[in-house]
């Protein structure tokens, strides 16, 4: 068994062209794509995402203290003196102003421009597409926020976000805004009453793809993952082609005339493919990292997670190579077989989003893409980059193992018995 | 020690090997002779357990190997007709791999690799990739790969096709050496009559999927003992002349090529005076006249009416 693996690895190493294709080419492509798209999307390092946000203030901010005092008394939870005291204290804080301050803070200024408009104008501009979306501060927002903060109940008036159709830009803005509106609605009230003017809102990080607690992922990361995975997938074709060469060179017959179990040949193929694929991705990821600084400052845990997915995906590629090997041994026309294998891998690559980002495809194709081992690995790794949640690795890991087992079963079932080859 | 009994193989109804009975005694060197497509390789594939016979048996020391191939695989060395080597690996790496699939390892494997390389005379080239070898050298490594496990029976399927005379002699010498000094039983397949004549104690002649003759060289030649072969070189050839020749008393077969004639006639027909007479009548000059002792080639011609290589 060891000698089968050694033979396959040696055969691969002897093929200088193959080594260049599997290692140097992906790095080159990553670098080229990265520079090409970096120039296209943002000329200066910072992201150029500039969202136009209309802010419509419908809140009547006069007599806040009185309104609050009246409301507190009317609800009957406190007596008048206490209500007056709370109202007095609350009147120093101004949720609406805090919201303005927040939206115009340095962090957000880079990518959001706020326009204060009345509702009609704002709606018009949104419709014309001049403005990406509008945020409405409803009447009574201040009082409600302060009251809710004091009583600890959720406010029954909240910020409303409106926008025209869901264009990409709008969608992004919506994601960004929506992500913290809830926070805003809730946090404001509590913080204000607490007497502090500082808002502890979780601010969205400046980024294109995602919003939330995770890191965003960059184009360089996308290219690195997509290309690393794609070229590892290509190894299944390479291995199949080498098997074809072995059939042509009749060496397989030499194995058959010995008492060695022919299955060792297949197992050797899988193990060597697994080794090659995992080495290949590891090298591509690490080289890309050192050359382009793709994964700056990530933890050991992060790299371990990447390692897990690399291993499991390599297992999938190994499974695929087993199927290809069995088919090769059965097919009369080896060139035709290799053509079919290449086509299969290309389709997997396209569906999995390794050539073009998957979201340019219709929905059903995107769904299908998640069922390819490469598409699955790509999306899992992108998620891992952002959130680093161990639980997010579980399902995909099981699916990759499932894919491997499926391939293994097919490969073994199709493997020719002696005398059939 | 090894025999095939009514061995037959059909591919999709088309018969490739029919009713072949062979046997190999311990230490013998046996030739399997036949033209292209005779069924030699198919027979060998069945013996070496690569193909299952359609019918018939293969027995090793009296035990049928068809369903119990373990034993024969251990003692059989097969040199396939086509090169079966990794071109991208060195000679040494090839041998190491092929030795390891015979479950050899470590010192034992190393020793037999060096021994095999020595036998085929390529010890000093072992580090080179096979693809850099000449055709003859590749053939020799192809043989070495079958020797690693010191097989008791060595089957060689046309090991000398398409190579230079020097390599060919080397290979023939190697096979003789293995047979004579190491006591290896040899089944040597070829369509070169002279190789088989030179190497083998006994010969099987196959044609069109069947064994058409078998025996020691002397036995086979005795098939022709009732015939003489006469070779003539003439100044010109005339069809009437050939027709007249054929109708002469005692003549069995006449073959003509250019200005040469080959006549097979009943032994002791003493055609010479009649021949001279006839040639004279057609104003043909007799340039050369020779009576030949028959060769296995002639035996084949006699049996099939065709030459071995066309
Ligand atoms: N796998 C196969 N499928 C179908 N027909 C086959 C197969 N192998 C051999 N044959 C046929 O069987 C016949 C015998 O072939 P075989 O290779 O045994 O001949 P051979 O004596 O070795 O000839 P050569 O001297 O050319 O090597 C041929 O007619 C060949 O076409
Ligand atoms: Mg043959």
TrEMBL record, chain A:
Gene Ontology terms: cellular component: plasma membrane
Keywords: Cell membrane, Membrane, Transmembrane, Transmembrane helix
GO molecular function annotation: ABC-type transporter activity
Compartments in which it is found: Cell membrane
Membrane topology reported for the UniProt record: Multi-pass membrane protein
Domain ABC-2 type transporter transmembrane per the UniProt entry, residue ranges: 19-412
InterPro entries hit by this protein: ABC-2_transporter_component (IPR051449), ABC2_TM (IPR013525)
Transmembrane region(s): 20-41, 219-241, 262-290, 302-327, 339-361, 393-415
Main subcellular localisation: membrane
Superkingdom of the organism of origin: Bacteria
Name assigned to this protein: ABC-2 type transport system permease protein
Species per Swiss-Prot/TrEMBL record: Gracilibacillus orientalis
From TrEMBL, chain B:
InterPro entries linked to this entry: AAA+_ATPase, ABC_transporter-like_ATP-bd, ABC_transporter-like_CS, P-loop_NTPase
Tagged with keyword Coiled coil: no
Protein's recorded name: ABC-2 type transport system ATP-binding protein
Lineage of source species: Bacteria, Bacillati, Bacillota, Bacilli, Bacillales
Coiled coil location: none
Molecular function via GO: ATP binding; ATP hydrolysis activity
Keyword ATP-binding recorded: yes
Keywords: ATP-binding, Nucleotide-binding
UniProt cross-references to Pfam families, sorted A to Z: ABC_tran
Domain ABC transporter: 2-233
């Amino acid at each position: 068994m060891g000698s089968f693996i050694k033979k396959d690895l040696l055969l691969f190493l002897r093929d200088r062209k193959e080594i260049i294709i599997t290692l140097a080419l992906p790095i080159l492509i990553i670098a080229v794509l990265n520079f090409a798209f970096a120039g296209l999307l943002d000329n200066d390092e910072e992201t150029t995402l500039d969202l136009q946000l209309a802010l419509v203030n419908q809140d009547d901010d006069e007599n806040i203290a009185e309104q609050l005092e009246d409301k507190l008394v009317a609800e009957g939870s406190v007596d008048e003196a206490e209500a007056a005291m709370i109202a007095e204290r609350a009147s120093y804080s101004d949720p609406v102003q805090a919201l303005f301050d927040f939206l115009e803070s340095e962090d957000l200024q880079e990518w959001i421009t706020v326009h204060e408009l009345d509702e009609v104008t704002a709606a018009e501009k949104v419709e014309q597409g001049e403005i990406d979306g509008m945020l409405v501060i409803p009447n009574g927002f201040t009082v409600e926020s302060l009251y809710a903060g004091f009583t600890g109940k959720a406010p029954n008036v909240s910020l409303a976000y409106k926008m025209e159709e869901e264009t990409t830009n709008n969608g992004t803005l919506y994601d960004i805004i929506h992500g913290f509106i809830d926070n805003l609605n809730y946090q404001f009230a509590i913080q204000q009453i607490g007497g502090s003017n500082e808002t502890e809102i979780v601010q969205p990080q400046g980024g294109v793809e995602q919003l939330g607690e995770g890191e965003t992922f960059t184009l360089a990361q996308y290219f690195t993952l997509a290309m690393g995975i794609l070229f590892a997938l290509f190894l299944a074709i390479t291995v199949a082609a080498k098997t074809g060469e072995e059939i042509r060179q009749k060496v397989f017959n030499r194995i058959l005339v010995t008492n060695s179990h022919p299955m060792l040949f297949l197992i050797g193929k899988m193990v060597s493919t697994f080794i090659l694929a995992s080495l290949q991705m590891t090298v591509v990821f690490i080289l890309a990292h050192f050359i382009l600084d793709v994964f700056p400052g990530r933890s050991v845990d992060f790299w371990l997670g990447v390692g897990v997915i690399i291993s499991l995906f390599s297992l999938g590629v190994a499974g695929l190579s087993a199927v290809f090997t069995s088919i090769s041994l059965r097919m009369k026309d080896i060139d035709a077989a290799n053509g079919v294998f290449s086509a299969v891998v290309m389709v997997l690559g396209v569906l999995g989003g390794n050539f073009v980002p998957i979201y340019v495809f219709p929905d059903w194709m995107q769904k299908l893409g998640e069922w390819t081992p490469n598409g699955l690995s790509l999306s899992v790794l992108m998620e891992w980059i952002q959130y680093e949640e161990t639980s997010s690795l579980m399902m995909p890991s099981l699916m990759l193992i499932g894919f491997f087992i499926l391939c293994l079963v097919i490969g073994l079932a199709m493997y020719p018995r002696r005398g059939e080859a | 020690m090894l025999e095939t009994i009514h061995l037959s193989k059909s591919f999709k109804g088309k018969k490739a090997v029919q009713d072949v009975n062979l046997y190999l005694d311990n230490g013998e060197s046996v030739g399997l002779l036949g033209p292209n497509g005779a069924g030699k390789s198919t027979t060998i594939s069945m013996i070496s357990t690569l193909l299952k016979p359609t019918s018939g048996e293969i027995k090793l020391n009296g035990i049928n190997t068809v369903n119990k191939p373990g034993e024969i695989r251990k003692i059989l060395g097969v040199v396939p007709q086509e090169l079966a080597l990794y071109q991208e690996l060195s000679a040494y790496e090839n041998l190491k791999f092929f030795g390891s699939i015979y479950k050899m390892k470590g010192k034992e494997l190393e020793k037999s690799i060096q021994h095999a390389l020595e036998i085929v005379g390529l010890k000093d080239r072992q580090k080179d990739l096979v693809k850099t070898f000449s055709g003859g050298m590749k053939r020799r490594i192809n043989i070495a790969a079958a020797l690693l496990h010191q097989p008791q029976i060595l089957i060689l399927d046309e090991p000398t096709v398409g190579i230079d005379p020097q390599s060919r002699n080397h290979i023939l010498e190697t096979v003789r050496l293995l047979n004579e000094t190491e006591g290896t039983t040899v089944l040597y397949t070829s369509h070169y009559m002279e190789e088989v004549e030179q190497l083998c104690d006994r010969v099987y002649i196959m044609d069109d999927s069947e064994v058409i003759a078998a025996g020691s060289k002397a036995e086979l030649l005795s098939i022709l003992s009732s015939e003489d072969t006469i070779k003539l070189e003439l100044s010109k050839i005339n069809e009437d002349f050939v027709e007249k020749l054929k109708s002469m008393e005692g003549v069995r077969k006449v073959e003509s090529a250019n200005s040469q004639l080959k006549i097979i006639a009943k032994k002791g027909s003493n055609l010479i005076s009649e021949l001279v007479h006839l040639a004279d009548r057609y104003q043909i000059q007799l340039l050369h006249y020779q009576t030949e002792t028959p060769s296995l080639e002639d035996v084949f011609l006699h049996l099939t009416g065709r030459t071995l290589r066309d």
